[in-house]
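> call design_seq(struct)
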């Protein structure tokens, strides 16, 4: 998948999602599937997808972007957690099993970390260049987290419950409040469709509206984009009872706004301008400690920035990770020269507007010593 030699890395992006090893972790709230990619001696990046999705349909675009894959796999071993019953080839969960709550799902994350003994196996080779405080946190089992929509809510809740285990949060179109009336009504419609008709065409249309912008969903005159067609095919593989159980858990979620101020890890939020959860992401950003958070609004994009515009995440993620002493490899063979290199891109093209971004800067206060 990736070969390291000094500061260089060679990536075969075609095998990133064809490789990896699947583990089934038995937790107090049932079994959960985890796909592991990369060198387990490296610090951990834990991902969690949205409703009815898994790593194949939620993070594939990001990891198929060679520069993003180089940045993440150079620094992390990736642990893709699938919601219960959302893994590839999953069978239907017994309808009599207790419905999980969002707290149960957050607790499953820490059980996954403990199962893999994250932090206990990181080698000095991978940590020697990092700041001492970052090394200490990684040694204690702290992880970087990346979640999309409902997955972002689960990982945010996990970060509040287990603050010492989270080093940073990368959240894409995150949820943080209880469902609005609009979302509640949409969830009720989807619940009834799942119960009576399964993964029918109308349900998939509802989910695609949740995920993508109008531009890529197409219309009567414009066909669906390739990423939407691929997502529609992957939704066919979902078991309706499993999706319904996760939907019910998310529909019963409490508002976690009050707990956001307790977070002490750095947080980077991405949201598309056309996301149904755009206002929710703005609300979350406004309630986070501005010293440790930043918001990136991506123009002409829906909720799944990871799939629709993964290139828009690259530069903000790189600067975010620099705060931990983590850097992309200086070069990687078998791929074009990095667009992040200042010698191969005109300075005027690095402006946020040219990349389709609206950046909300982190406000900091520096007290001068006299």
């Amino acid at each position: 998948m990736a070969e390291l030699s000094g500061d260089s890395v060679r990536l075969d992006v075609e095998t990133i999602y064809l490789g990896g090893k699947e583990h089934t972790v038995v937790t107090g709230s049932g079994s959960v599937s985890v796909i592991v990619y990369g060198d387990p001696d490296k610090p951990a990046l834990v991902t969690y997808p949205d409703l009815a999705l898994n790593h194949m349909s939620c993070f594939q675009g990001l990891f198929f972007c060679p520069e993003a894959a180089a940045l993440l796999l150079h620094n992390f071993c990736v642990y893709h957690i699938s919601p219960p019953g959302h893994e590839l080839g999953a069978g239907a969960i017994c309808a009599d099993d207790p419905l999980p709550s969002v707290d149960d799902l957050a607790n499953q994350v820490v059980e996954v970390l403990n199962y893999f003994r994250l932090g206990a196996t990181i080698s000095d080779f991978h940590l020697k260049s990092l700041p001492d405080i970052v090394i200490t946190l990684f040694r204690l089992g702290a992880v970087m987290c990346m979640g999309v929509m409902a997955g972002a809510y689960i990982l945010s809740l996990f970060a509040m419950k287990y603050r010492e285990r989270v080093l940073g949060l990368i959240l894409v179109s995150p949820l943080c409040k209880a469902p609005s009336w609009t979302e509640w009504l949409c969830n009720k419609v989807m619940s009834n469709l799942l119960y009576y008709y399964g993964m029918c065409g109308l349900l998939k249309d509802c989910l695609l509206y949740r995920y993508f912008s109008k531009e890529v969903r197409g219309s009567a005159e414009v066909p669906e984009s390739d990423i939407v067609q691929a997502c529609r095919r992957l939704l066919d593989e979902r078991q309706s009872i499993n999706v319904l159980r996760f939907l019910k858990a998310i529909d019963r979620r409490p508002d976690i706004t009050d707990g956001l101020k307790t977070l002490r890890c750095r947080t980077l939020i991405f949201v598309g301008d056309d996301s149904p959860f755009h206002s929710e992401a703005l609300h979350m950003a406004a309630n986070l400690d501005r010293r440790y958070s930043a918001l990136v609004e991506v123009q002409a994009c829906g909720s799944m920035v990871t799939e629709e515009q993964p290139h828009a995440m690259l530069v903000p993620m790189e600067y975010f990770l620099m705060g931990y002493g983590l850097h992309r490899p200086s070069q990687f063979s078998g791929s074009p020269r990095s667009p992040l290199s200042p010698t191969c891109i005109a300075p005027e093209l690095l402006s946020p507007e040219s990349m389709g971004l609206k950046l909300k800067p982190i406000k900091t206060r520096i007290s001068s010593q006299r």
